[in-house]
Amino acid sequence: MSLLQDILTYNEKFVEEKQYEVYTTSKFPEKKMVILSCMDTRLVELLPHSMNLRNGDVKIVKNAGALVSHPFGSIMRSILVAVYELQADEVCVIGHHDCGAGKLEAESFLNKAREQGITDQVINTLEYSGLDLKKWLAGFESVEETVKHSVDTIRNHPLFAKHIPVHGLVIDPNTGKLDLVVDGYEYAVRKED
């Protein structure tokens, strides 16, 4: 049986037995926060538990490295939607130690893509079109600096209200210990009444 079939079989039983009822909540975050974190598998349950979060407490956006790499990309759009449409009034960027995205190397990545059938012609076309693959696929040296970068990108976005705090944290993926990198309350501009 395939992984997909295993999931669908389990899901049928899950719905039949109404196991979803314990997860029922609204689309609005109870704690009025949106979190950007890494997609690392170690954080799936550890991150919410380490922060005393339950289903429905916050919006969580995940990507490789908890990185806002482009101010007009889908990550920033999701954060803005959470703030303006879904009642989040704080943002928290949470990177983590031992991040696989930090170790990313463009040439190694492209070699793996080639092994999966991506041709040099496709890679050359992307580079010719102006995409700097070496930069786009580069890792990072400091998770703290990456968190600061993402916090700054969010905070300085032209559509982001300056009174909304943007916090930056780093989590240990083994213990769940959180270290403060940026206290967003220190930078939030008082909202004019």
**What is the CATH-assigned architecture of the largest domain?**
3-Layer(aba) Sandwich
Which superfamily, in CATH terms, is the homologous superfamily of the largest domain? Carbonic anhydrase
First-residue to last-residue Cα separation? 60 Å
Annotated CATH topology of the largest domain? Beta-carbonic Anhydrase, Chain A
Helix content range: 25-40%
Gyration radius, rounded: 19 Å
Strand content: 15-25%
Mean pLDDT: 95
Question: What can you see in these coordinates?
Answer:
There is one protein chain. By secondary structure, the protein is an alpha/beta fold. It has two domains: 26-103 and 140-193, 3-Layer(aba) Sandwich (Beta-carbonic Anhydrase, Chain A), CATH 3.40.1050.10; 105-138, no CATH class. The protein contains seven helices and five strands; from the N terminus they run αβαβαβααααββ. A five-stranded mixed sheet has the order 2-1-3-4-5, sandwiched between helices. It is globular, with a radius of gyration of 19 Å. The chain starts with a helix and ends in an 11-residue tail after the last strand. The mean pLDDT is 95.
Topology record:
Layout (H helix, E strand, L loop, with lengths): L2 H14 L16 E6 L4 H8 L7 E6 L10 H11 L5 E7 L9 H10 L4 H9 L4 H4 L6 H13 L10 E6 L6 E5 L11
Parallel strand pairs: 1-2, 1-3, 3-4
Antiparallel strand pairs: 4-5
Keywords:
globular, alpha/beta, single chain, Beta-carbonic Anhydrase, Chain A, 5-stranded mixed beta sheet, 7 helices, 193 residues, 2 domains, 5 strands
Summarize the structure.
The protein is α/β, with parallel strands linked by helices and 193 residues long.
